[in-house]
Structure formats: structure tokens, C-alpha cells
TrEMBL record:
<protein>
    <submittedName>
        <fullName>LysE family translocator</fullName>
    </submittedName>
</protein>
<feature type="transmembrane region" description="Helical">
    <location>
        <begin position="152"/>
        <end position="175"/>
    </location>
</feature>
<dbReference type="GO" id="GO:0005886">
    <property type="term" value="C:plasma membrane"/>
</dbReference>
<feature type="transmembrane region" description="Helical">
    <location>
        <begin position="39"/>
        <end position="58"/>
    </location>
</feature>
<keyword id="KW-1133">Transmembrane helix</keyword>
<feature type="transmembrane region" description="Helical">
    <location>
        <begin position="6"/>
        <end position="27"/>
    </location>
</feature>
<dbReference type="Pfam" id="PF01810">
    <property type="entry name" value="LysE"/>
</dbReference>
<keyword id="KW-0472">Membrane</keyword>
<dbReference type="InterPro" id="IPR001123">
    <property type="entry name" value="LeuE-type"/>
</dbReference>
<dbReference type="GO" id="GO:0015171">
    <property type="term" value="F:amino acid transmembrane transporter activity"/>
</dbReference>
<keyword id="KW-0812">Transmembrane</keyword>
<feature type="transmembrane region" description="Helical">
    <location>
        <begin position="64"/>
        <end position="87"/>
    </location>
</feature>
<feature type="transmembrane region" description="Helical">
    <location>
        <begin position="187"/>
        <end position="205"/>
    </location>
</feature>
<keyword id="KW-1003">Cell membrane</keyword>
Length: 208
């Protein structure tokens, strides 16, 4: 494998393993609906990478990057979506207070809902667009298709992200007896809600 691809893989792996909104959504949804919920959410998150790669390749990312209005709109939508997810986590936290059993059963799994949550959380993240716009060109040659190369790099990122998030899901599911305890579920809902709301507020207030 060429040295530049190894460099890309190392950088993208470190980025993927850094806790952020995507990590919290995978954890939150795995706790909510089990392994299927977490894995499908991960599929949605990682699928969003191809959107960023395509936007970067055709230059739309440049428009968003240099247009204050477009950037602000995208940033606001992404921030509001994170706030909405955080609100739902807190809603689950408060609803659990009325549950008297020691363990809480996972909620029904809905494929499209989980896929959509993961996909939108990634696609509506302006930081991901800017990262792809700034990072991918370093590994792209003008001698061949820019779009093809961008999609290939996104595929590598997709594989790395899927593997890492699958490990997270497996770790959570392996501790299922612990995870289903009411007190633990409430704590995780509160933590994920706090983190997502904090990320949303930070994104909303962050200067261009």
C-alpha cells in the first residue's frame, strides 16, 4: 500500500476513535434498542461519509466554506439536530423514573429510524464537510478521477468507522446485564443527552 494511503488510514483511524457526536449516538442507540439499533445507526453514520466525499469532489464544500450564509444555515441545522437528539435522551431519562422494575427492556428496533438518525447526524455536521474539503485533497491526484478517488478514500473511512463502532456496540451488548439496569440506563441517557446538547450548543455558538 502506498505511503500516503497508510498516512490517511492512520489519521482517519485516530479521528474515528476520538469521542464525538457519532460515538454518543452509537452508544445511545445501542443502549436504547440493542445491537441492531447500534449497528444500523453506525451504518447511517458511515454512509454519510460518501455524501461528504462527493460534495468535496464537486466543489460544493467550497461554496459552503466560503459562503457565510450557507455555512451558518448548515451549522444551525446540525446544531439543532444534536439538541433534538439530546432532548430525546433526557426524555428517556425522565420517562424511566416512572418505571418500577429493576431492569429496563430495550425499545422496539426501527431500521429506518436508526438509519436516519445516524445518517443525518453525520451529514448535518459542517465540521465533517470542512474536514473532507481540507484533508482529502492531500491524498488525491489530478491525473485521475477526483470523484473516484474521493469515494475510494470515503470507502476506507467507512470501513474503519464501521469496525470501530461495531467494537463499541459489541462492548456495550457484552455488558447487557449491567446496561439494562434502570439506574445505569438513566445515567447513560443523562450523559449522552448532556454531551449531545453540549456539542449542539458549542456548534451553534462556534465562530466561523
Amino acid at each position: 500500500m502506498p505511503l500516503d494511503l497508510w498516512t490517511f488510514l492512520i489519521a482517519i483511524t485516530l479521528l474515528t476513535m476520538t469521542p464525538g457526536a457519532d460515538t454518543m449516538i452509537v452508544i445511545r442507540n445501542t443502549v436504547r434498542g440493542g445491537a441492531k439499533d447500534g449497528l444500523v445507526s453506525s451504518l447511517g453514520i458511515c454512509s454519510g461519509l460518501f455524501v461528504h466525499a462527493t460534495l468535496s469532489a464537486v466543489g460544493i464544500s467550497a461554496i459552503l466554506l466560503y459562503s457565510a450564509t450557507a455555512f451558518t444555515i448548515l451549522k444551525s441545522v446540525g446544531a439543532l439536530y444534536l439538541l433534538w437528539l439530546g432532548f430525546n435522551s433526557f426524555k428517556s431519562f425522565w420517562n424511566a423514573k416512572g418505571v418500577h422494575q429493576k431492569h429496563i427492556a430495550p425499545k422496539p428496533f426501527r431500521f429506518l429510524s436508526s438509519l436516519q438518525e445516524g445518517f443525518l447526524s453525520n451529514v448535518l455536521n459542517p465540521k465533517a464537510i470542512i474536514f473532507y474539503m481540507a484533508f482529502l485533497p492531500q491524498f488525491i491526484s489530478h491525473e485521475s478521477s477526483v470523484l473516484g478517488q474521493s469515494l475510494f478514500l470515503a470507502f476506507l473511512h467507512f470501513v474503519v468507522g464501521t469496525i470501530w463502532q461495531a467494537i463499541l456496540v459489541y462492548t456495550i451488548v457484552s455488558a447487557n446485564g449491567f446496561i439494562t439496569k434502570k439506574s445505569v440506563r438513566q445515567s447513560l441517557d443523562a450523559i449522552s443527552g448532556t454531551v449531545m446538547i453540549a456539542l449542539g450548543i458549542t456548534l451553534f455558538l462556534e465562530k466561523r
